[in-house]
Amino acid sequence: MSTPAPGGFDPPPYPYDRLAEISAVAATHVGGAVDLSVGTPGDPPPSIVVEAMANPGPAQGYPPSAGTVAMRTAFAEWSSRRLGAGLDPETEVAACIGTKEFVAGVPHWLRLRDPGRDTVLYPEVSYPTYAMGATLAGCRAVAVPMRPDWSIDLEAIDPGDAERAVCLWLNTPANPSGGLDDLVAAAAWGRKRGVPVLSDECYVEFTWDGPPRTILHAGCEGVLAVHSLSKRSNFAGARVGAYAGDADLVGYLRKVRQHAGFMVPGPVQAAAVAAWGDDAHVDAQRDRYVRRLERLAGILATVGIEAPLPRGAFYLWAEAPDGDAWGTARMLAERLGVVVSPGEFYGPASTGWFRVAAVATDERLDLVASRAGL
Description:
Aspartate Aminotransferase, domain 2; Aspartate Aminotransferase, domain 1; globular; 14% strand; alpha/beta; 2 domains
């Protein structure tokens, strides 16, 4: 294997790959490890979605990079029905291949548009791809401090960083903390400074504290909302999502992504139409996640850990005893056979915390409960 040139980019280990030792400890339990580290849905996608994807017709030709009219329309109708946000599917909606590739790639595309800006602002406690997307684009990744309720503190952004910002990322409900941002205030902050505000809303259907919120409630000017079917419809393996908002931004990104060959496969787009069009399976999944969050909080209490229920998303975000997240992860692997994520995966400000994903099936949680003596 070649060695990077001096000063060249040496990719760090992928965070979850660092859990191999802990996973091995958890696997020694009868029944094996119960992985609560990654937010991979454990429940199946709805049958109507799988059936739609089985139609061979959409696989015959190249699918439109921006998404089929049917898919963009289904997304716009869902956004109106579930979020109360009006969108023009012709100019304000486009498809992406899941949302992780979009999060990682959009700083590069936006910097190409305005080379004078070189900074990506993102929440200091967050999904690691916001910062990595900045790095991959050759940008400065600048973490924005959080308030005690895990919302982003816009007032803490340095004016000099704002002047250089290619974009500001938000995540509501937030991974890992479940925090909820004031998205209307964030949109106003960005418009005042000419900074695009990108709101990752992939957990919006799992908002527990109040109604679901989207940055589109503030209008489309200068903002993009990013949505995924991975969480909403247990469709992570199909890799499909959408971004929507400012027609100028959407139009620019559509053109760039078409040149780069980003296309959601045709059968997956057909399945996405079915998924965006059905709400019953999401309501059932909401009920499952609430029950699992409550159950996992009770299981953690048996080992002396208090884990408050989140305001949104399907993670428990808990302080590690003595601030030792890695030690806590090893203890939970030894005693309960579960694998959780140490907080440092989500930024240096998170080192004393750990995350538990409520994604395992009820049968697997029965196993964990039995190990806890419940």
